[in-house]
Amino acid sequence: MQDLGAKARAAGRELAKADTGAKNAALFTLAERLVEEAEAILEANREDMRRARDNNLDAALLDRLELTPARIEAMADGVRQVAALPDPVGTMTDLALRPSGIQVGKMRVPLGVVGIIYESRPNVTADAAALCLKSGNATILRGGSEAHQSNQAIALCIRRALQRAGLPADAVQVLSTTDRAAVGELLTMPQFVDVVIPRGGKGLVAFVAEHARVPVIKHLDGICHVYIDADADLEKAIAIAVNAKTQRYGTCNTMETLLVDASMAPRALPELGRIYRDLKVELRGCERTRKFLPEAKPATEEDWRTEYLAPILAIRVVDGLDAAIRHINDYSSQHTDSIVTENYTRARRFLREVDSASVMVNASTRFADGYEYGLGAEIGISTDKFHARGPVGLEGLTSQKWVVLGDGQVR
Amino acid sequence: MQDLGAKARAAGRELAKADTGAKNAALFTLAERLVEEAEAILEANREDMRRARDNNLDAALLDRLELTPARIEAMADGVRQVAALPDPVGTMTDLALRPSGIQVGKMRVPLGVVGIIYESRPNVTADAAALCLKSGNATILRGGSEAHQSNQAIALCIRRALQRAGLPADAVQVLSTTDRAAVGELLTMPQFVDVVIPRGGKGLVAFVAEHARVPVIKHLDGICHVYIDADADLEKAIAIAVNAKTQRYGTCNTMETLLVDASMAPRALPELGRIYRDLKVELRGCERTRKFLPEAKPATEEDWRTEYLAPILAIRVVDGLDAAIRHINDYSSQHTDSIVTENYTRARRFLREVDSASVMVNASTRFADGYEYGLGAEIGISTDKFHARGPVGLEGLTSQKWVVLGDGQVR
């Protein structure tokens, strides 16, 4: 692993000064090769799938693991989209002249070496490699053992694409080892690894956060709220509350708790109750909620803290904005929270006072996503405050150094 | 400590929404109180000094510990300067309209709770409290046991100033305990502490980096380089090389190794040798350096890795820009490195390819400083790449959350 780390560090230095053209050429070649080598990748994937079935892995995992010609096409498309994004590296900003005569500004630079630890989806191999390559970072990828063959087949395409573009082949290294010791080492080599990004379930993220001796961009729970304010437009409120919960149940930006101002409850809750009932969403409400929705089960303290990732919704009636903000800052996982209101001042207060990675006015929490935000793609969503919050794209994979331009100035 | 952490978290929430006027009022009151209470602070400091002398602490430490009326005045001035800086909190930027109709941008927000662990200088208590307060962060300050009385006297002024401005008194908590266990706890409460900043010697920083389970803004060595390029203006080169080494010996942005292009060595080294000799700087050179400066001791591999913090300079003759950049990226501590050249293309390459927190052209490394960069003040200098590099001011104590403004959009 030390040797692998040293190779990544050396490749990272080369990549940091690579020009945009070379990086894009590698990405376009990678996209081509994924399509050309589709049959080899699918064959490797079939082998992984066979072993996964033999090991009785569950249906959800098998679905994430499986590649199809369409999924490979989508992977290639994703890589082409990253090529089309502007290159953040080298951008200089804010070059201010100082009284001493020096000019001081910042230049955006890669972080260096990024470790990615992920679970069953083989498409992460191509996605993560593409984002790191474009942002000038070397990558060490460690996928799930169940996707081993698929990942190696994709890794071969990446390696060839790097070589064809004249970039160091070690810029993207896919760990072939399947033991946990390699992960442990990856997490504890600050001399070679600048940041680790775990992509997977809570168990994986918690393991990485616990053991890492390098910075981690981590994504824990997504307990997202929509608050329907006293001055909400009812139609918008209904549309957002339904969309935020039901457009997809398993995503981190799905609403898990709906807060309703007491004055809006009589108008909003019965109608929402009918819609959720039709969509088979199980409701759990506070006592005041259950006056309007007797079919809701009583919500417990535990419900306010739960990321259901399922057709279940907790509902609480609150007295005004302060109570709503207090509930959110107490129970939210600081992922994404939205207010529905026509009131200007309360909208501004919600934006300022809710301490979450994404804070919204009159929009569905489902918009918290790299593509929707215009990042092009995301390497993950951070629920930390340090370095990057929310969807992390190319910029989140970079840092800024200071540049000073002088004419011989001394102090 | 848990209780103290919970108080800091609650105070941080209040402070995050405090308006600039209240924060500035607290800062101006603090500056006033420091001056009014100068006699009480000096008395506390005299007690610390007595104990320090009884414990035979060395002269350098005694100098850092000692307060004088002038030093208290300077402390008050520093606090007033922070009050005069623009408030970064709440600034919204880059509000782009997306194809979906939502408007997406970023708002600058405090990190939350900042832990500062520092050694003997009592002025850090006021400096750090002021910067954290202005950036909307609650602070837990843990100074050196030798400055205990002085820090408590300053802490009292801070507490009163917060109360007078109607801000939570727990926004700045100065640990009265002097045991190491409190530090250990401070480093391992991610639920209450968002970042820890150690300010002190290498031992302290290494201890914090080793034990922290929260993010750390850390400053390790300052092994800074000046490279005199083949196309350097000789006059600028001499001025910068002398200033970078000799203006102050003990600071982290002092040059420790001078690199000279082979073609410049015959002109630059003899003259520099004369000046350094007059200033009593001990020289250690590579073989080629010693041809021009026979009085220089032979430099060893160890010299390239050493932060002397003393009137000692390592000198190496190199063949061109690539060799200089290679030396810097191999041996520099990624703090501050400067090229002296009139060559446009080599200047651009140096800026791009040297991977240090501050990269300079034709300026003394001594400029790497929060005041010189226009940050107004610095809470520290980061040699990390994650979150913040180089001098860390108010902005480095903040993060950005996403804001989304919609009109009822759903996905």
UniProtKB/TrEMBL annotation, chains A, B:
Coiled-coil spans in chain: none
Cellular component GO terms, alphabetical: cytoplasm
Subcellular location: Cytoplasm
Pathway(s) served: Amino-acid biosynthesis; L-proline biosynthesis; L-glutamate 5-semialdehyde from L-glutamate: step 2/2
Aldehyde dehydrogenase domain sequence ranges: 7-282, 304-369
Keyword Protein biosynthesis: no
Domain of life: Bacteria
Gene Ontology terms, MF aspect: glutamate-5-semialdehyde dehydrogenase activity; NADP binding
A single BP term in Gene Ontology: L-proline biosynthetic process
EC number: 1.2.1.41
Pfam families recorded: Aldedh
Main localization, broad class: cytoplasm
Top-level enzyme category: oxidoreductase
Catalytic activity: L-glutamate 5-semialdehyde + phosphate + NADP(+) = L-glutamyl 5-phosphate + NADPH + H(+)
Keywords: Amino-acid biosynthesis, Cytoplasm, NADP, Oxidoreductase, Proline biosynthesis
Signal peptide feature range: none
InterPro entries found in the cross-reference section: Ald_DH/histidinol_DH (IPR016161), Ald_DH_C (IPR016163), Ald_DH_N (IPR016162), Aldehyde_DH_dom (IPR015590), G-glutamylP_reductase_CS (IPR020593), Glu-5-SA_DH (IPR012134), GPR_dom (IPR000965)
Function (record text): Catalyzes the NADPH-dependent reduction of L-glutamate 5-phosphate into L-glutamate 5-semialdehyde and phosphate. The product spontaneously undergoes cyclization to form 1-pyrroline-5-carboxylate.
UniProt record similarity statement: Belongs to the gamma-glutamyl phosphate reductase family.
Name of this protein: Gamma-glutamyl phosphate reductase
Native source species: Stagnimonas aquatica
